[in-house]
Amino acid sequence: MERIVIIGAGPAGISASIYAVRAGITPLVLYKDEGALKKAHLIDNFYGSPSVTGKELQEDGVEQALALGVKMKQAEVMAIDWNENFTVTTDAGVIEAEVLILAAGTKREVQKIEGLKELEGSGVSYCVACDGFFYRNKRVVVLGNADFAAYEAEELAPIVAEVTILTNGREGMFTKDMTYPVRTEKIKKIGGEGRVEYVEFESGKKFFTDGVFIAEGTAGSTEFARRLGVETDGTGIKVNADMETNLPGLFAAGDCTGGLLQVSKAVYDGVRAGTSAVKYIREKDKGGN
Ligand SMILES: Cc1cc2nc3c(=O)[nH]c(=O)nc-3n(C[C@H](O)[C@H](O)[C@H](O)COP(=O)(O)OP(=O)(O)OC[C@H]3O[C@@H](n4cnc5c(N)ncnc54)[C@H](O)[C@@H]3O)c2cc1C
User: Fold this and answer.
1) pLDDT tens digit sequence for 249-273
2) Is the CB of 89 inside a 6 Å radius of any atom of ligand 1?
3) 164-219 residue pLDDT tens
């Protein structure tokens, strides 16, 4: 069992890890890649770093954390469950944690498919753990082209009658053998009278389905929050001034909490989250939490 697990190795997660380790608790940081910073060609508005590339800033942060003794593991998190402690399911195994800091950034790309927004909650769902049950013995599709989509299909398979993955014109990026049907045609629209009835491909062909589960790219903060029943406010995960969410032992920091999507804010959030997580554990050890 880990004491603190941090999801994300961006400025929020790394800052949280630095403050936690220096306060006496060595956290484990799980990360998939360099996060938003890998796309930032040049950052010239961060204190003391007049012209640094996003990649350099991220790598320097990781180096600093490792030098302080922070544990880091490259693994994609697929799901998080809570039952007094946190169970983090990754593509490299399952990890248990007493306290979790979500610093998984935010997704900037949104699929623009006709009908998707309109049918949200009426057959379009973003959460298998929340809505899968409503599709017992029904026919569903999962929209996505990577391992997260495969994971969601796996979760749906025992409940539904049939699950198909639709990649919407993209190549499948699955790292494991795929056991579900995959269709790669580009999607024109999601249609139906008041609720999802079909997905129409650009060829005009219709694929009849009862539900569309969105599982694009990597599972992100929003997906984790939905699964855990954590409050969000439209821009991100809701936190108080100590970066606590409404779930005991779960903290969030950086872009995933909304507001200013900037490195300085992510660093501040991370500092608060790392400090608060250690304080929470100290209270718990004294029998306070
Ligand atoms: C093109 C571009 C230019 C930018 N320019 C600037 C700028 O000039 N100045 C500035 O201040 N800000 C800039 N930003 C914004 C800045 O990069 C972000 O605000 C900042 O990186 C947010 O930090 P974060 O730690 O919250 O998230 P991120 O840096 O996005 O890190 C998220 C971390 O979570 C991990 N993660 C996510 N999902 C999973 C999962 N399922 N399993 C495991 N790990 C996961 C990722 O791998 C990553 O390590 C820019 C962003 C972009 C995209």
Assistant:
1) 999 999 999 888 889 999 999 999 9
2) no
3) 999 999 999 898 888 999 999 999 999 999 999 999 999 999 999 999 999 888 88
**DSSP strand pairing (198-201 vs 187-191):** antiparallel
Residues 16 and 146 in one domain: no
Its domain, for residue 280, covers 2-107+219-285
CATH number for 133: 3.50.50.60
The reply to whether ligand 1 has any atom less than 6 angstroms from the CB of 165 is no
The reply to whether 226 falls in a domain is yes
- What pLDDT sits at residue 176? 85
Q: Report long-range pairs for 43-47 (Cβ below 8 Å, ≥24 apart).
A: 43/263, 45/262, 45/264, 46/263, 46/264, 47/264
Is residue 273 in a domain? yes
Closest CA to 82 of 246, 258, 214, 236: 246
- Which of 156, 179, 214 is the endpoint of a domain? 214
Q: How far is 62 from 78, CA to CA, in rounded Å?
A: 22
Task: Tell whether 113 is covered by a domain.
Answer: no
pTM: 0.87
Give me the number of domains the chain comprises.
2
C-beta 105 within 6 A of ligand 1:
yes
Does residue 102's CB lie within 6 angstroms of at least one atom of ligand 1? no
Percent above pLDDT 70 for the chain: 98
